[in-house]
Write a structure and sequence with these properties.
The chain has 179 residues and is α+β, with helices and mostly antiparallel strands. Helix content is 34%, strand content 30%. It has a single domain, classed as Hypothetical protein (Archaeosine Trna-guanine Transglycosylase, Chain: A, domain 4).
């Protein structure tokens, strides 16, 4: 896809177990071994729930990116006092000096998930990332994700007939792709 288009969306891949914690709001940080680009701060980052769901299930925004060694990140995020803090040590290693913690906010789950199968029916560019991927506005998937967000975000704007809305979004995208 042409990356000269200025409008893009970011999709981050997260194992289903951790994605569920994020959307249950028991995990307030996403831990990574690579930094997130600063231009993504305070922007929607869509979450692809890998492994089990194989779908885009919602989005979050990142307010801050913490960086340090394993101990510093554990203390800065409060994971040094949590029972699951050992998962962070397992992920990074005991003395890793290159740890990143994305501080999450505006965590919003979709009423209906956008499955990989549906995405592949719209765009050949629907392969999902190991870490992060950008979809540009000249890709039909860009418009589907935007419309999906508007229709299925669990922010009080629930639609009356989710199945019908889902079919309409996908049908419109397929029609757009035939032009």
């Amino acid at each position: 896809m042409d990356k000269n288009h200025k409008n893009k969306i970011a999709i981050i891949s997260i194992i289903t177990y951790y994605a569920r914690q994020i959307f249950n709001e028991t995990k307030l940080y996403e831990f990574r071994k690579s930094p997130l680009k600063k231009d993504l701060l305070d922007k929607k980052i869509y979450v692809y729930s890998a492994k089990k769901d194989k779908a885009i299930i919602g989005y979050f925004k990142v307010s801050n990116i913490l960086n340090g060694n394993t101990d510093e990140i554990l203390k800065a995020t409060g994971y040094d006092k949590r029972n699951d803090g050992n998962e962070i040590i397992e992920y990074y290693g005991k003395n890793n000096s290159n740890c990143f913690a994305l501080q999450l906010y505006d965590v919003t789950e979709f009423e209906e998930y956008l499955s990989l199968k549906n995405m592949k029916s719209i765009s050949k560019n629907a392969d999902m990332p190991q870490y992060i991927k950008f979809i540009y506005d000249n890709d039909p998937l860009y418009h589907v994700i935007k419309e999906w967000d508007k229709t299925f975000s669990l922010d009080g704007n629930l639609c009356n007939d989710p199945l019908k809305a889902k079919k309409m979004i996908l049908k419109k995208a397929r029609m757009r792709g035939k032009k």
